[in-house]
Amino acid sequence: MTSHPLLEVDGLRVAIRRQDTALTVLDGVSFAVGASQCLGIVGESGCGKSLTLRAAMGLLPPGIERTGGKIRLSLQPGAAPSEVQAGQVAGRGLAMVFQDSHASLDPTMRVGTFIAETVRRRGGTSRSDARRQAVELLASVGVPDPKVRFNAYPHELSGGMRQRVAIALALATDPRVLLCDEPTTALDVTLQAQILRLLNTARTERGLGMIFVSHDIAVIRQIADVVAVMYAGQIIEIGTVSDVLDRPRHPYARALIDAVPSIDGPVGPFRSVPGSPPDPIDYGSACRFLDRCGHRDTACEGVVNGIDGREAGHRSACVHNGTLAHGLEAT
Amino acid sequence: MSAGRLHFVVGRLAQVFPVLAALLLIVVLLQQMMPGDPARVIAGPRATAEQVVQVRHELGLDRPIFEQFGRHVSNLLQGDLGTSNRTGIPITTIVGDRIGVTVWLLFGGLLVSTLLAMPAALLMALRPRSRGARICSRALTIIINCPPFWVGLMLASVLALGTGWLPVGGFGVDFGDRVRSMILPSLTIGLAVMPLLARSAAASLSQVLTADHVTTARSLGVSGWPLVRRHLLRNALPPAITLLAIQAAALLFGAVIVEQTFGLPGLGAEMITAASQRDFPVVQALTLIFGLAIIGINLLADLAVALLDPRTTWR
Amino acid sequence: MPKCFIDCLKSGDFPMVRIKSVGCVLLALSLLVTGCGGSGGKDGGNKTAEGEVSRDTGTPKRGGSLTILRASDIDGWDLDKAIQLSTFETLPQVMEGLVRPGADGKSIEPGLAESWKLDAKAKTITFTLRPGLTFSNGQPVTSADAAFSVDLWRKGLSLGSLYAAITGTATPDPRTLVIKMNKASTFTLTWLSNGSSIVVPKDFGGMDRKEFFTKPIGAGPFVVASYKPGQQLVLDRNPRYYDAERPYLDRLTYDVVTDPNQQMLRYQSRQADMIEGVPLDLAGQIPENERMPIHPSATIHGVFVNAAKAPGSDVHFRRAVSLAIDRAQYIQAVFGGLAVPATGGLPPRVQGSVGCGCVYDTGVEKAKAELAKSSYKPGTKVELVVDAATPFSTRAGEVVASQLRAIGIDADLQKLEAQVLVDRQMQGNYNLSLGEVSSVSPTVGDIFGLIVATGGLYSGLPMKTISDAFEHLEVAQTDDERAEAVRVAETWIHDNLPYIPMAFPDRLFAVSSKVKGLEVTPFLSYPAHQLWVG
């Protein structure tokens, strides 16, 4: 990371509020993203990666709230990130691309109109100018016949087309950082590749920061520069893509990466990690992977927290931190 | 409009005729099966059996059912609704005299119920945990359990008789009188329909609130009233409109009760009198009109939904 | 003789005293039986006839208008359709007849005819029309119009048979109408005062019958200003009426309001000045000095019995039912005291209402004994059908059912819609039912026709005695002869019980202090030209 990061998340805590009790599900998550940089976040379902993005945007669902931590965003190019309130960043510096484009576009709005309105919301654009920019945006995300498609309704477009529209919408807000929540998961491999290419282009052309959440390691490998691995509401490993994905240090990260079947690897039993992540009720301050870890020993009894993703270098939350033998006993 | 929607509109319009025909047939058949002899009602208790037969013949009731039905339909096609057996007055005159009252009442009721239901729905959907929303919800439960004739009676006794500002009933002669005489009946019928409308609109709104496309809109920076207006309402309206159309039957039924309670000379009151006196032509004509009204309302609702939701197609 | 006849009818002469004394005995009995001061409304006026309150305090003033509420509209202007009492009341206000009923409900007064005389054999009545009579449109009223009208009455749909004695008419001059009868029917003369004997222009003034009766023209005190059937009837003063002083009112409006609560509200808010026929269970809502009871009305309230099939076919069963009904208790529970226990099967307080001096006994033990004599098998369901429409009728049904069960009759109460009930009665598809029948004229004779036409109020018993009695009644020349004929009928009814008379109910009018000059006959007729605004 050179110069200032565009987005800095500092000690983010999120809890589910039920009656009078609050159940912490995100436990002190910290990371930063710089210009033209893509941070990938991987983890299995329920680890909190989507929640992290939503918390940053201020789009948490009802019943879930941010209970701690700060978010800082660099609003002007070159400026240091300043603290922002939740609910003030959406559409004004941060934009998001969602997974399910079928439901995520308003079915009663023509896509072009929606984009044009989004452009106008930034201010200072006339209606005809906004229309023109909308058509250009559609073209830039690879929608053929953008003038015709301007008038289309979402249900008249294919899945891939809709995802392009979603990206166009996000870009229409002229964001500093683009948050992507599994945008390619619902697409087939060809489309996936196209969308990833599109995102990459947008990133480099506009100098955007990007956070890309996925459970698909292969995709992360393609798009991210830095990877954070999340487990049970914490970041448990972070580093460059090659560092983390080729030389994981945390037993969980290793198990996750090993679990991906490779087309040119040996044919063998499907390797998964036995057990399941702990329930948020049971989150404690000890290592949350303890019960499933095959490398448990007396040193693990110590207090272990998640790591601060802002610090440089390849780090992991495991006390053994990479000193374990490669490989995992299948149980 | 896209081909799908156009197809839907045409299909929906064409559907009206078979439904109407079925309605007519059912009404005629039901009346034949009803106990009670219209000829006897007109002839009175002192008439001899021969005199009753004579009356029956004059009314054309001794013809076979299908001949009666055929004549009825051919009259209808010429715009003739028939004449009342009891008074001999052409039914088009009766309807013309009375339809105004019923239309005023339904319109007033719809206005009141919408004006009351919409803010309540918005409050309950957007601020569900606030005190206002909870008071609202409890008030709705109370209202939905009050029968309309009781509500009408209470309103008339307290607000009309008690204060003297409003008439206790009747329709009035000039425009000003009529507006004043419609206030309490509209309020009564509006209150009867309002709870269901408010609840369904609130449910629909809540559902839309957590919908993905709303999250998208919020992620793009849309908030406050523009969010509600553009992304919530337009998507929440179709289910609410559909439910309101289904309620149309309840609204008409409520109109009948409210007309009786306030002594309004409308179609509902006429229907009850005609039915209790077995005045078949009037009952048939009014059933046709009510049926048409409900069919029309449902048609309008479906068309409104088609207008609002571009995904509508004919299946 | 004719002049005396009229005088006797009008004044309180010997025959009238007889009827009056019987009436007083009835009243005394009713007071004794109900054990209280009677229904309200006895204060605020002087009593003229039994229970009626005269409201003639002050001098009548010209002008003003009144609004009267009724629960249902008239049956139409065509006399053929007249069924309800309100129709009989209203038709003659526009189309006055030859004679009108007297306020006491037993006599007749001049109408369009200023005088009449009978010939020696009393088979011809010669009416002399008033001089200078015109219809409301200015056309003169002649005997030709009257003769045309008499013909209409004779051919009437349901009431025509009551004019059966009339064979023809003659019109020797424009002011003289001669009615020829095939017997010396005094009944016919009194019957001519009923509200469907209306005088209309000859040949309906050139219009067709249906057309005429949508905008009727007559020589009565009022003209139809506007008529919205089922809603409102507005009558305006007829400026060409033969009586220069009357009607006092400029305008009389009848509003049709079916819902009793709405009626009350309109009355209490003074949107209406009078209510014709307040349901007896709402009597308490009217202030006492505004209640005008017709106590009792010329109505019989009773249990109709289907005597064509078991168990009603057994006279012991019918007697048991009659004994089981505790009439006093019934009147208190159902009418709230606003009725008189029935002392006969024919309506009271009209000409000829003498009863038979028979007693309608009551008593649980006597009833059980009588039931034991009958062929009724205990445990057999006996269906009692009543009108489901009003709380009054359903309560009446419940009281009767419980009294029957108390003596061991397994009464099964069924509440039916009005037309379904009528249907079942007509077809003889019932065991017991509750109902009321009323007189529509000042003579008890018109009820004979109804009883015969319905086979003894739907009982199915042979009606020979009743029709024979009517034949005697018809030609009775004196009150004694009349009383004799009626007594025969009453005795037969008492002994054979084609129906079981239970009560003579009151009718109740709500009358605000604005209404003056109201006098209501027992069959709910009141001369509207006498009303004035106080």
TrEMBL record, chain A:
The keyword Membrane applies. It is found in: Cell membrane. Its main location: membrane. Keywords: ATP-binding, Cell membrane, Membrane, Nucleotide-binding, Transport. It comes from the Bacteria. CDD domains: ABC_NikE_OppD_transporters. The keyword Iron does not apply. InterPro entries: AAA+_ATPase, ABC_Ni/Peptide_Import, ABC_transporter-like_ATP-bd, ABC_transporter-like_CS, Oligopep_ABC_C, P-loop_NTPase. Residues 7-257 form the ABC transporter domain. Pfam families: ABC_tran, oligo_HPY. GO terms for cellular component: plasma membrane. It is a peripheral membrane protein. One of its GO terms (molecular function) is ATP hydrolysis activity. GO terms for biological process: peptide transport. Belongs to the ABC transporter superfamily. NCBIfam families: oligo_HPY (TIGR01727). This is Peptide/nickel transport system ATP-binding protein. It comes from Sinosporangium album.
Automatic annotation (TrEMBL), chain B:
GO terms for cellular component: plasma membrane. It is found in: Cell membrane. The chain crosses the membrane at residues 12-30, 103-126, 138-162, 182-198, 236-258, 285-308. Coiled coil: none annotated. It comes from the Bacteria. SUPFAM superfamilies: MetI-like. One of its GO terms (biological process) is transmembrane transport. Keywords: Cell membrane, Membrane, Transmembrane, Transmembrane helix, Transport. Pfam families: BPD_transp_1, BPD_transp_1_N. The keyword Repressor does not apply. It is a multi-pass membrane protein. Residues 99-301 form the ABC transmembrane type-1 domain. Belongs to the binding-protein-dependent transport system permease family. This is Peptide/nickel transport system permease protein/glutathione transport system permease protein. It comes from Sinosporangium album.
From TrEMBL, chain C:
Residues 38-64 are annotated as: Disordered. One of its GO terms (cellular component) is ATP-binding cassette (ABC) transporter complex. Keywords: Signal, Transport. One of its GO terms (molecular function) is peptide transmembrane transporter activity. InterPro entries: Peptide/Ni-bd (IPR030678), SBP_5 (IPR039424), SBP_5_dom (IPR000914). Pfam families: SBP_bac_5. Residues 108-446 form the Solute-binding protein family domain. One of its GO terms (biological process) is peptide transport. Residues 49-59 have a biased composition (Basic and acidic residues). SUPFAM superfamilies: Periplasmic binding protein-like II (SSF53850). Belongs to the bacterial solute-binding protein 5 family. This is ABC-type transport system, substrate-binding protein. It comes from Sinosporangium album.
